[in-house]
Specification:
Strand order of the largest sheet: 2-1-3
Mean pLDDT: 90
Shape: flat
Distance between the termini: 51 Å
Radius of gyration: 16 Å
Strand content: 15-25%
Number of strands: 3
Number of domains: 1
CATH class: Alpha Beta
Number of helices: 4
Low-confidence stretches: none
Length: 111
């Protein structure tokens, strides 16, 4: 009974995804990413910082040069999954949000 309740609570929990930026203060570089669940993305980032292991190969050089403490995780925009949305629709909405942020920051003089 408890397992069933826990499983149901997990399925009906609020899900918040969105777009975030990983930024290196040492060189000013940043990487835009999106996630269906931002809390999980933040947990992964914190794990990488704690263990001093870079999150992605494209960040390896900056991570080794400037160190984990020079990286930050910044949420740019959130998007809650609606009860009526399918997973596919939700993923598509997040994909569009990432594209919009990519365009916005590309046209910004100081991202």
């Amino acid at each position: 009974m408890i397992k069933k309740t826990l499983k149901e609570n997990y399925k009906t929990r609020d899900i918040t995804g969105g777009v975030y930026r990983l930024k290196c203060s040492g060189n000013g570089m940043f990487w835009l990413r999106s996630a269906k669940e931002l809390d999980k993305a933040l947990n992964r980032f914190q794990f990488f910082v704690k263990t001093n292991s870079h999150p992605e190969p494209v960040m390896k050089q900056a991570w080794q040069t400037y160190g984990a403490e020079s990286f930050s995780f910044e949420i740019l925009e959130t998007l809650e999954k609606k009860e009526t949305q399918t997973d596919l629709e939700y993923r598509e909405d997040i994909k569009v949000l990432l594209e919009l942020w990519t365009e916005k920051l590309a046209s910004s003089p100081n991202p």
